[in-house]
Amino acid sequence: MAVFHNPIRRGFYPDPAVIRVGNDFYMVNSTFQYFPAIVISHSRDMIHWEVIGHAIDNNDWLDLRECGNSLGIWAPDISYHDGKFTIFATLRLNGDGKRGNAPIHRQLMVESEHPEGPYSKPVYLDVPGIDPSLFIDDDGKHYMILSPGICAVEISPDNKEVLSEKMVLWEGTGLRCPEGPHIYKIGEYYYAMLAEGGTGYGHQISVGRSKSLKGPYEASPYNPLMHQFDENALIQRTGHGCLVDTPDGDWWCYYLCGRANEGHYTTVGRETALDHVEWTADGWFTINGGKGPSVEAEAPKLNTFEYEEWAYDEFDPKPLHKEWLWSRNPNGGDWSLDENPGHMRIWTSDGTLDEIRAKNILLRRETELSYSATTKCEFYPSKDGENAGLTCYYSTQTYARFSICYEGGRKLQLVINKNHGEEVVVEIDGIKERPVYLMVQVYKQTRQFLYSYDGEAWNLAGTLHDCTFLCDEGVPDDPKRHTGTLVGIYANNGGAGTRIHADFDYFDFKPMGEQA
User: Whole-model pTM?
Assistant: First the structure.
């Protein structure tokens, strides 16, 4: 018996939406302020997933340059109809008054004949709400489904115009934050699927049904269909799900979750899990028998899906690997794979990591609670403030950086920000005028930072013993924390106003030790 282990998408892959087209499965996930936007993945066995593209990768089509932390792209949905893939998502704006009368939430739509793209320029439908999805009824009418609760607006057959006022279909069971809505027509019933309880530890999935799209909807006697009842279990925060069937008619549910890291702390972000759907004799369904999330379960009976899991990047002259993310829209002229072939060259940009304007931060998802990440950095700063190196980055509010810098001389610094400004933890003088290897070793809430001149003899620079500030829940006075921690490389001038470059020879990510 083949088994799988949850989460099946590890690291920052929240708010999953999945469809099947023939024998192929496609998933989209939220990307918030990161760019390219709306990650798209492909699988044939429902367990192993490969990133194949992004719905928006044109800098001119989505402006996230001033986007606040954990705002931007929320809860996309993907569908397939008449030979086209259609993706809806919410663009969550700052709501700071800088955009005049512009709404805080905008719904966007893109489409393509190919799942990986390229997708069309976004079309905006300014209907208040979040988490839009497309539902096409038996009569061919198109509806945009969105929250709060489950609401619907009729839209044009090309999905570009709003044709009706917003209708409330089902408000849910009465819990807070009813969101992540989907409507499914299966047999004689419309099933209204909804996440409730907030995206934290009260999260759950509920469902209602009706024989009419417009209701009334009856709540399932099996609610909540998915919820973590054991506060000490590894997998927590389960909710925001979607249904998908296999070619043989077997049903499954993908849903959001988060792994606990030494307490109620979610370090690697909200992830994607999978469990089996069982239909009941009375026409309802349950997820994993109502027992909550599984850690290990029997895998779907599908063909194997093999691909090379990405961990090591030599930065050969080629398109940047699809799993890299920029902190926001990158400045196109401030990075290159061609200037020094086999290296990622990043020029210093204005600002520091605690400022939104410091955009050229290149990151990958932390997929495990214990890992090591290593890079080789060639950087020769000469003015105070210039710095480049390795970063464990949650947001402009919270991060750690391990940098080659200039502060009255060439140095190494380990700097943290716990939402109260930068604090130098370790400073090492007399760093040689040569490339430096930088490494972070992570074991749950402990992070060690090491350096080397040859990649073999390593020196410990410093250890952070409590990294709960790099968790969703670790900084109570930071209002929005939905993304988890990523790891990567960066260069900036620290306000010096200079433009010099850092060359990164490679980036190596290795899960290590016992994995949760």
Answer: 0.97
